[in-house]
Design a protein that fits this description.
Radius of gyration: 18 Å
Largest sheet: none
Order of helices and strands: HHHHHHHHHHH
Distance between the termini: 41 Å
Strand content: under 5%
Oligomer: single chain
Helix content: over 70%
Structural class: mainly alpha
Mean pLDDT: 87
Length: 268
């Protein structure tokens, strides 16, 4: 098995897997704590519209998904903040609209029909070296922003009213948090695709929440769980000749079910 890592594409895949795991472990914690699962899924699926635009106009799909994901995330964040009761409707419309736009534009672009699967379900084994630099830069920005704004994110996550009384501009930090989640989605899409990214964002965070006493501990535990899932999924997929993205998610679902069963046994 380990002789596989002498190959360049496997080394790139492993580096990409680690970058994805760290990003999802850190930001997935905020997704779980703030109950932003639906919004994160909406951003992930809507970002396919950016891929369609990039394919149609002939520029980098990474840049297309990045710009479109950020735009959709800001729109979703603002609309759901203004009217929480209709948040599901706003997310659903943007989610479906982005996906539909992406499908139409890729269908109009000659030669991109077969590549849709890699965007939808990930292509970790084909990540080029130059894309690793993009992913690394985005991760550094995410970690830097979380480090600088950690106390503010902590305040708005657990007690936004108290944060507002203390003079914290809650909406500004909420929108920044949504933007960082969008960047994480763009990174994670390289591993598991737009369809499955929501599972990698939430499963490690849910499991970490069960065994953590504070947000910092939860974040570190989530990163460890996420690393274990992506590395195990990558190795298992290579051994069994499976698609990597879905294999990672299956490992995550199995771990979630085992954790759920363990918690039920403890209660009894």
């Amino acid at each position: 098995m380990f002789e596989l890592f002498s190959m360049d594409f496997m080394q790139n895949a492993l580096v990409a897997a680690v970058l994805v795991a760290v990003a999802c472990g850190v930001m997935g914690t905020f997704v779980v704590v703030n109950r932003l699962t639906a919004l994160s899924g909406g951003v992930a699926h809507a970002s396919f519209g950016g891929v369609g635009l990039a394919c149609f106009f002939g520029f980098s799909p990474m840049l297309g998904s990045l710009g479109f994901a950020l735009a959709c995330a800001m729109l979703m964040g603002f609309l759901t903040w203004q009217d929480r009761k209709k948040s599901d409707t706003f997310i659903g419309v943007i989610w479906a609209g982005g996906m539909a736009l992406g499908v139409i534009l890729t269908d109009l672009t000659p030669g991109y029909g077969g590549d849709m699967m890699s965007f939808l379900f990930g292509s970790l084994l084909t990540v080029p070296t130059d894309l690793l630099y993009w992913m690394g830069a985005l991760l550094v920005f995410i970690l830097g922003a979380v480090t600088i704004c950690f106390r503010k994110f902590l305040a708005i996550s657990y007690d936004p009213e108290f944060a507002r009384v203390r003079g914290i501009p809650v909406l500004n930090y909420y929108m920044l948090l949504i933007g960082l989640i969008a960047l994480t989605v763009v990174i994670a899409v390289q591993a598991v695709g737009m369809i499955l990214v929501i599972a990698l964002l939430t499963i490690p965070g849910y499991i970490a929440e069960c065994y953590s006493k504070n947000l910092t501990q939860m974040m570190l535990t989530s990163v460890v769980v996420s690393l274990a899932l992506v590395v195990a999924g990558l190795l298992l997929a290579c051994q069994l000749n499976f698609v990597v993205g879905p294999t990672i998610i299956v490992c995550g679902v199995i771990l979630y079910l085992l954790n759920f069963a363990f918690k039920m046994l403890l209660k009894k």
